[in-house]
Write a structure and sequence with these properties.
By secondary structure, this protein is α+β, with helices and mostly antiparallel strands. The protein is 17% helix and 54% strand. The chain is built from 1 helix and 9 strands, in the order H-E-E-E-E-E-E-E-E-E. It has a 9-stranded antiparallel beta sheet with strand order 4-3-2-1-9-8-7-6-5, with no helix packed on it.
Length: 138
Amino acid sequence: MKHAMLSLTLLTVSACSIASAQTATSYDWTGIWHAHAGALPTDTLTLATDTGALGGTVVLDMVSHKGETPYVIASEPHVLMNLQADGSKLNFQVRMKRPSGSIVVASFTVTGTSSDKANIHCTSCGPDAPVVELVKGQ
C-alpha cells in the first residue's frame, strides 16, 4: 500500500511538472532562428531545453550598408541572461562590450508572429534600434 501511494504521489508530481513546463513554454521557442538583412543572413538565436530550462545564445551581426551590397563586418556571440518566456513573448539580456571597452547589458524582446516567425528588438538600444524578423529553421 505504501508503495502504491508513493508511486501515485510521484506520478502526480511528474504530471504537475510536465503541465507546468508546457504552460510556461506554450509557444515552441526551441530551435534555431535566423534573421536576414535583405538577402544577407545575419543574427542567429539558438534556444534549447537541454538543462531542463529554456536557455540559449544569440549571435549579433553588425552589417555595413556602405557600397552596393550590405555585408557583415563583425559577429558577436552572447549567452542569454535572465531569459523569460511568456507565451509568444521572450525577453532576455546580453552582456556586451563596447568598442570603448565599457560593458553594457542590452535588453531584447522577441515576439512570436507565427509558429515559425518572430520579431526581435533591442529595447534598450535607443530609438533607432530596428525590429528584425527571425525565421525558425527546419
